[in-house]
Amino acid sequence: MDQIQDSTTDDVESSMPTQSGTALPPPAPNVSGRHRSMVWDHFTRIPNGDPSKPRAKCNYCTASYACDTKTNGTKSMKYHIEKQCKKCPFNRTDKSQTTLAWKAVGGSDSGELVSIAFSVDACRQSLAEMIILDELPFRFVEGEGFKKFMLTVCPKWVTIPSRVTVAKDCFSVYTREKNKLRSALQGQRISLTTDTWTSVQNLNYMCLTAHFIDDDWNLHKRILSFCLVENHKGDTLGKAIEMCLHDWGRPKYLAITLDNASSNNGAVSYLKKKTKYRKDTILEHEFLHVRCCAHILNLIVCEGLREFDESIAKVRGVVKYVKSSPQRWSMFGKCIQLEEITCKSDICLDVPTRWNSTYLMLERAIKFRRAFEQLEEEDSAFLTSIGDDDDDDEEDVEQVMNRRTSRKLGPPNNIDWEKVRLFVKFLKLFHDATLRFSEGLYATCNSFFLELATISGAIDMECQNQNLVVGLMATNMKKKFNKYWGNLDNMNMLLFVGILLDPRYKMRYLDFELEVMYAHDPTKAVDLSCSVKNTLTRMYEAYLANEDVSNSLQQQQQPRSLSREDVNLTGEDGASTDVDVRAQRMAIFQQLLQSEDSLESKSEVDRYLDEKCETDSASFDILVWWKVNSFRYRVLSKIARDVLAIPVSTVASESCFSTAGRVLDPFRSSLSPMMVEGLICTQNWLRSSSTPISLRTIMDDVEDFERQLEMGVFIIYFIL
C-alpha cells in the first residue's frame, strides 16, 4: 500500500511544473496496471550488478544512483532529473539565461527592452521591500491568493519563502540600507529632530530624525532610530540620543529641534555637556537647542480660541447635525444642488483639541452657507436639534438634558456667519505659517523670520481693530506670543542667521522688519541686528578653524602683521648672515601676499552681505543658488548648507508615530522592538529616494492617530 501511495505521489508531482515552469512528460503506464514512477523514463537499471544493491543509470549523463525500492526509493533520482541533470531535455533552462523585458524610464510609458536573468535572491529582496513599503504582515506570503498569483506571474519561482524567512529578509534589507546611510553620513554635519510618545500600555518611544544637505545641495531627512526609552526625563532622553548617535559613528550635528516640554531642556543640557569640547563642535554648541515653531504657533492660536465663542459652536452644531445620519446628509446634498454650489470639498467636523481642524471646519462650512440656510427651510427638525455645545461626553445625562432644555443655540445667523468669515480670514495666516514651518521638501530655516514678522504684524493690527471678537482673540494671542517670541534675545540666533543666508533678503530685510517691530525702541532693533550679524561672523571664524575646511583654508585662518623678526636677517651678533638678503625679503613678500589672501577670504561675509539682493520669484530655489555660488563663498557656503538644513518643527519625527500605528496593529502585536525599528526606519529610507513627502498626508495621519488613541482603539504590544 505504501508503494502504491509513493508512486501515486510521483505521478502527481510529475504533472506539475518544475522550478523553471517546464513540465516533465507524464510517466508511461505500466503493463501490469500498477503506477510506475516517472524516473524510470529517464533511468535504466544497471544489469549484471549486485542483486542486493541494485543501481540505476541516468539516460542522459550516466550518473548512477542506488535504486532499491525498499531501502532507497526514487526520490534522489527524481531530484537529479529535475534539478541536477543539465543534459536532460525536459529540465529547466539554464538559470543564467536571460529573457527580454520592458523597462520603463522615469515611471512613464517610455522605456527600452532589456535582458533580465531570473534570480531567486532578487525576488526575495523585492518581496521584503514590498512587505516594508506597503506595511503588510509577514503572513501575507503564506496566503493562498498570493501563492496563486506568483505561480501565474513568475512560475520559475516555485519555493515562496515562509513568513519567518521574509522577516529575516526584511531585517537584512534594514541592515543593508543602514550601512548605505552610514556611509552617506560620513563627513556630513546634520541637524536633528526628536519627539517622544507614550502608548496606551505606557510604553515610551523616541523617534530621532536626521536632516542634512548633501554635496549636490539636495535636502534629505532620514529616521535614525525608533526605540524604546525608560521614561521621558531629560537625562534619559539625552542618553538615548547619545547612544543612537554613537551607533551611527557619532556624526557631527549643529542643532536639535524639540518641542516645549520641560524635560527637553535637560536632554539638551546633557548633550551639551557631552559634546561641548569636541573638535567638530561649532561654538561649543551655544545654539544647539531649537524650539519647535509649529508647536509654539499651536499654543498661540489655542490661547486665542480659549474663550468660548458662540458662533463657532453654532457652526459646529449644524455640521454635526448634517453628518449625524445618511438621511440628513442626503437632504443636505439636495440643498447644495438647489443652491447650485459647485464646491467639490465636503464639510468636516473638527477635533476641539486641534485648532487647525477647527479652521478647516469653518473654512469649508462658510462655502456651504446658502445650503445650510436652505436646509433650515426644508427640514423642520433642523432648528430644534442643534445643541448648545459638544461637551456632553463627560457630564451627567440629567445635567445635559437640563442645560439643553434651558438654552438652545440653534443654527448660525447672519451675524454668526460674518464672525466666522473674520475668523477664517484671521486664522488662515496661522494655518499657512504652520504648513510652511512643517514643510519637509524644502528648507524652512530661512522662512522663520518671514513668518514671525508677518504674524507679529497681523496680531498687532487686529489688537487695534474695532472688531471686538477678533480683537479679543488677537489680544489673548499677543500674550502667548510675547511669552515665547516677544524677546528675540532668548531665541536661537541661527533662526535669524537663516534669513541672512537667503540672498533675496540678507541684512536689508532683517533691519527693515526689526525697525517696524521695535519702532518704540530703535536702539533695541540696532542691537539685535548687530547680534545676528555677529553670530554669522563668529560661525564663519569657527568654520575656518574647524577641520571641516580644507587644509589650504586652514593655513589662512590666523593672519597677522609681518615684521622683520619673521625672517632672520641677522645673526646673533647683529652681523649679516651669509643667507641671501634678497631671497629672504622675497619670502617676506610672499607671506604678505598670503596674508592679504587670507584677509580677503575672511571677508566672505562682508562681500556677500554687500552684494545686491536677488530678485524674489516663485521659481527661486535657495539651494540651487548656493550650489551655483559655492565656489565664490567656499566657507560661507558650508555654513549655509548646515544652517539651511535646520528644521523649525518636529513634524518629521511626529509623523513617524502614525506609521507606527499602522505597523503595530492588533494583528502584529508580537513584533519585537528591534523588528519594529527595522520596519519603520527602512520604510522611511526606501521611500525617501523616490516618493516626496506630503505634508497634508502627514498631518492627517497624525490627527487620525491621535483620534484613535482618544477612542481607545489603538493597542500596542510588547514581545519576545
TrEMBL record:
BED-type domain location: 34-92
Region called Disordered, residue ranges: 1-34, 550-574
Subcellular location: Nucleus
SMART domains: ZnF_BED
Alphabetized UniProt keyword annotations: DNA-binding, Metal-binding, Nucleus, Transcription, Transcription regulation, Zinc, Zinc-finger
Signal peptide (residue range): none
Pfam families named in the record: Dimer_Tnp_hAT (PF05699), hAT-like_RNase-H (PF14372), zf-BED (PF02892)
The protein, known as: BED-type domain-containing protein
Lineage: Eukaryota, Viridiplantae, Streptophyta, Embryophyta, Tracheophyta
